[in-house]
From TrEMBL:
Protein source organism: Shewanella holmiensis
KW Transcription (keyword) present: no
Entry protein name: Galactose oxidase
Gene3D superfamilies reported for this sequence: Kelch-type beta propeller
Signal sequence bounds: 1-24
Attractin/MKLN-like beta-propeller domain ranges (all copies): 46-308
Pfam families in alphabetical order: Beta-prop_ATRN-LZTR1
């Protein structure tokens, strides 16, 4: 009897998960399964460039040069010109009518972790990607935002010597670069308090907030930092309930939602929510398909999750496209903690 009760209980508990998975399956999957991506919204569409995948050939470094875009009016993802070569951990950022891709790791004779300083610009009329600038240093696994018309990039990994091509050839940095999309030049601003990589970031009413990340040898970080552009300084907000890295975050209804991320024993499933009204964090649910190395964007008043992998490292990469709405629409994130 006890065994039957356990089986029945487990079946009941699985019903919401199966329902949500069924809902997610109604959206068109990415043409390729990819992880370690940084999607952006450009012209009211979700854009994804490059990525790495356990399902792509090792001969090409398990990475892709493909670029795709989608919005809810499309039945399928649309494609444009490829990047100059396959790359992963490339930061994609739209500003005005321009779309840029910054850095990333590419495949070379030295390995599949050749860190690049490329700044690529997409020409929609010609359907081409062009190298238009170089960053001050090769940079990957960074996060960014658009402030006062400039693109800010902070943190990530950069080579620490003349060697470049393997993951261990790069180390975490705290540097903060400011890119002018008109002059295609860089300057520097206040660095992070500590070096880190694989953070997530969001913008909210002109504010830029960087969440978590990791330090090599130091594990995942729970810190949440806000950059005050007019004062060129970082201020500390309430920490997340747990450190996250390789996660994704997006803003909806005056709240930040954090999804996924990896730790040494697996992938995070709890959905975290920070309410700007209260300045507090809560766990508001569980994501039935936990992912790391995924992307998250807000489009048409919904948070969309893209790609990622369900196991740590380069394994079980996904072609996921899913709306978080079924899971967070009833979240009481604005309510203060009891």
């Amino acid at each position: 009897m006890r065994l039957s009760l356990l089986v029945l209980t487990a079946s009941i508990c699985l019903l919401p998960t199966l329902t949500r998975q069924a809902q997610a399956s109604t959206w068109p999957k990415l043409p390729e399964a990819v992880q370690e991506i940084y999607p952006t919204v450009f012209e009211n569409q979700i854009w994804v460039a490059g990525g790495i995948s356990s399902s792509l050939p090792q001969s090409q470094g398990n990475m892709t040069a493909k670029v795709h875009y989608w919005s809810t009016e499309f039945k399928q993802w649309q494609g444009v010109a490829d990047l100059p070569e396959g790359r992963h951990h490339t930061y994609l950022q739209a500003v005005g009518d321009k779309l840029f891709a910054f850095g990333g790791f590419i495949h070379s004779a030295q390995g599949q972790w050749l860190n690049t300083a490329d700044v690529l610009l997409f020409d929609k009329a010609k359907n081409t990607w062009t190298r238009v600038a170089k960053m001050p240093v090769p940079l990957s696994e960074t996060v960014g935002a658009v402030l006062n018309g400039n693109i800010h990039l902070v943190g990530g990994r950069s080579p620490h010597s003349d060697q470049n091509g393997q993951w261990q050839h790069s180390s975490d940095i705290a540097r903060h670069f400011v890119f002018d999309p008109t002059t295609l030049t860089f300057s520097e601003a206040k660095p992070l308090p500590k070096a880190l990589n694989s953070a997530a970031s969001v913008q909210y009413q002109g504010r830029w907030i960087v969440l978590g990340g990791r330090q090599f040898g130091g594990g995942n970080l729970p810190e949440v930092l806000e950059y005050l552009v007019d004062e060129n300084r970082w201020q500390v907000l309430e920490k997340m309930p747990e450190g996250r890295a390789g996660h994704a975050a997006a803003v909806l209804n005056n709240s930040i939602y954090v999804f996924g991320g990896e730790h040494e024993n697996g992938v995070y499933q709890d959905i975290l929510c920070y309410a700007f009204a209260t300045g507090q964090w809560q766990v508001v649910g569980k994501w039935p398909m936990p992912q790391h190395g995924l992307g998250a964007v807000t489009l048409n008043d919904e948070i969309w999750l893209i790609g990622g992998a369900s196991r740590p490292g380069l394994a079980e990469t996904s072609a996921l496209l899913a709306s978080a709405k079924p899971l967070i629409q009833d979240a009481k994130c604005e309510s203060p903690k009891k």
